[in-house]
Design a protein that fits this description.
five-stranded antiparallel β-sheet, Dna Topoisomerase Vi A Subunit, Chain: A, domain 2, about 55% helix, DNA primase DNAg catalytic core, N-terminal domain, DNA Primase, Chain A, six-stranded mixed β-sheet, 5 domains, about 600 residues
């Protein structure tokens, strides 16, 4: 059963280890804390409880269990999170359960089977030419298998036939980006007669493909999977699944351009290497890298296109306050070519990588005579726009002082020019950076009170599981309409229904049985509310709980009546303007009733 699998996954995985894959946690007593990844903040308000296997941000009020974190962080639904965590935990899933499947998981299954198909063709007679090509490129058997290299045969529908025979629908294959619909009807394979590179996400799940043509006459050297529900190329880095542990260990990532650059480097023993997957470097890719390190060495091609790509990437990396170095290749037009000639020289190029600003200063002043005014102006024109893009103020000031000393121009004058440069560079971004703040996350106070009320009642039931008239009254008189969130309302309804069942059957309240009844999503939310209560109310005596329950209920009802009072007053004004006597009488009586209820609550 899926419920058993969920509990098994939670028991095998440590929430702190999973969350540490995304953000840096610091110990704070028995808990851990961090800057929240879901909203901007300067003081950590994100807490993880290893004991309860829960997380909670007290700044933006997000929280939940291990599944809720992965779902929110990865932007995925429960079935995908379930599969991802089951794989990490080594738990077998019953995939016939609808909670374990979704449209996305169907696409993931299709991609998995497609990768196996392409690799099987590579090892068949049809793939001999590609195998020979890989041998000439010095790609080992181990690399072929570990990187899931394959061959899309020179056929219009071989993959289509293979997958439909396995029971997959054509519309799902189209959604996975593997087949294309003909104008006159029917489908054909997207990839044909190409060396296939398999794209995996950070969790080693296959999500897409890139096909390289070996025909020089082909207008498209590379064809990538289109954007799908599981593949967003701007958010992925090629081989990040294989490189992430080495990146963490070495505390820097090497960023290259080509798939072959990555494979050759990993094969040569330098494994903290990734590539942008068929796209220029994006902010999302940088954020993915920053999960593992804030240090990047760029080793792009040294041709003109490579230099332009390097400049664009540097701009983005500097804005995100990443420490950037440049690896200058000793020979060869790209890392793959250099590695083929000398793996040792590739290693030395990385070790000798220059800090980005040192690289810029050296390359700028190597061709200038700073004794000439024109060359001083040239140096400032080249370097000031780059200095302006540095996000860290202290580092920015350091390089400004160095430029001032090099060209013998007062720093004050350069700062004035710098400010003009800053205004030209993504003004919205700089304004946001300089302000150092975003809109504060506004959370409805009465939503928090509602969460607290349900948490208090759950804790009371756990402390007093036996049949209790006062608790029965409290549960059955929950002000559902005053709860500010559908998710919270649903949990409250489930609580009422389940507690009534326990009560009628003379059973003691069982929190574990209650969680089984309400399902994993609500159970995770319920655990979170209990976690909040135990944090806020360390002295969990029955009297304290009853007092807080009564006060929370009163506050919710009071807010509900005050809102309704305002609505009725506005309706009464409209009725008086229209001189509608019957409506005036009805609204006046309702106003009187609401006022009486408010007075009762204020006693």
């Amino acid at each position: 059963m899926i419920d058993n699998a969920i509990e098994e996954i939670k028991s095998r995985l440590d929430i702190t280890e999973i969350i540490s894959e995304y953000i840096t946690l610091r110990q704070a007593g028995i808990n851990f804390r961090a800057l929240c990844p879901f909203h901007k903040e300067k003081t950590p308000s994100f807490f993880v409880s290893p004991e309860r296997q829960l997380w909670k941000c007290f700044g933006c009020n997000e929280g939940g269990d291990i599944f809720a974190f992965v779902m929110k962080m990865e932007g995925i639904e429960f079935p995908e999170a379930l599969r991802l965590l089951a794989k990490k935990a080594g738990v077998e899933l019953e995939t016939r359960d609808p909670r374990a499947t979704s449209q996305k998981t169907k696409l993931l299954d299709i991609c998995q089977e497609t990768a196996a198909f392409y690799q099987s063709i590579l090892y068949s007679q049809a793939g001999e030419k590609i195998k020979q090509y890989l041998k000439e490129r010095k790609i080992s058997e181990q690399s072929i298998k570990s990187f899931f290299l394959g061959y899309a045969p020179d056929s219009w529908n071989s993959l289509l036939q293979f997958l439909t025979k396995k029971g997959h629908k054509e519309k799902d294959l189209e959604s996975a980006g593997l087949i294309i619909k003909k104008a006159q009807g029917g489908y054909y394979d997207r990839f044909r007669n190409r060396l296939m590179f398999t794209i995996l996400d950070p969790h080693s799940v296959i999500v897409g493909f890139a096909g390289r043509s070996l025909d020089d006459q082909d207008s498209a050297k590379y064809i990538n999977s289109p954007e799908t529900r599981i593949y967003y190329k701007s958010r992925l880095l090629y081989a990040v699944d294989k490189a992430k542990s080495e990146i963490k260990k070495m505390n820097f990532a090497i960023l290259v351009e080509g798939y072959m650059d990555v494979i050759s480097s990993h094969q040569a023993g330098i494994k903290n290497v990734v590539a942008s997957a068929g796209t220029s470097l994006t902010m999302d890719q940088i954020k993915l890298l920053k999960r593992y390190t804030a240090n990047v060495v760029l080793a792009f091609d040294i041709d003109l296109a490579g230099q332009e790509a390097t400049k664009r990437s540097i701009d983005l990396l500097l804005e995100e306050e990443v420490n950037v170095k440049i690896a200058v290749l000793s020979r060869g037009k790209d890392p793959d070519e250099l590695i083929k000639k000398s793996p040792q020289e590739w290693k030395e190029s990385i070790e000798k990588a220059k800090r980005i600003m040192d690289y810029y200063f050296d390359s700028t002043f190597s061709n200038l005579d700073i004794g000439k005014v024109e060359d001083k102006k040239k140096a400032a024109k080249i370097l000031l726009p780059i200095i302006a893009k540095i996000g860290d103020k202290i580092e920015q000031s350091h390089w400004l002082q160095k430029l001032s000393g090099n060209i013998k121009v007062e720093e004050k004058i350069l700062r004035e020019v710098l400010e003009k440069q800053r205004q030209k560079i993504r003004p919205g971004f700089l304004k946001k950076k300089d302000a150092g703040e975003q809109k504060k996350v506004v959370i409805d106070r009465y939503f928090l009170i509602g969460e607290q009320l349900i948490g208090l009642i759950l804790k009371s039931l756990c402390l007093s599981p036996k049949k209790d008239e006062s608790l029965f009254e409290i549960v059955n008189n929950l002000p559902l309409e005053a709860l500010k969130n559908e998710k919270l309302q649903e949990l409250a309804k489930q609580l009422i229904f389940c507690y009534n069942n326990f009560y009628k059957k003379n059973f003691d309240f069982s929190y574990s049985e209650f969680k089984k009844e309400i399902g994993p999503a609500s159970a995770g939310y319920s655990d979170l509310l209990l976690f909040n209560i135990e944090k806020d109310f360390p002295m969990l005596e029955k009297k304290v709980l009853e007092k807080e329950i009564n006060q929370s209920t009163k506050n919710l009802k009071k807010n509900l009546f005050l809102k309704r009072l305002k609505e009725v007053e506005n309706q009464l004004k409209n009725a008086e303007n229209k001189k509608n006597k019957e409506e005036i009488e009805n609204l006046t009586q309702e106003l009187k009733n609401i006022t009486q209820e408010l007075f009762k609550l204020m006693r």
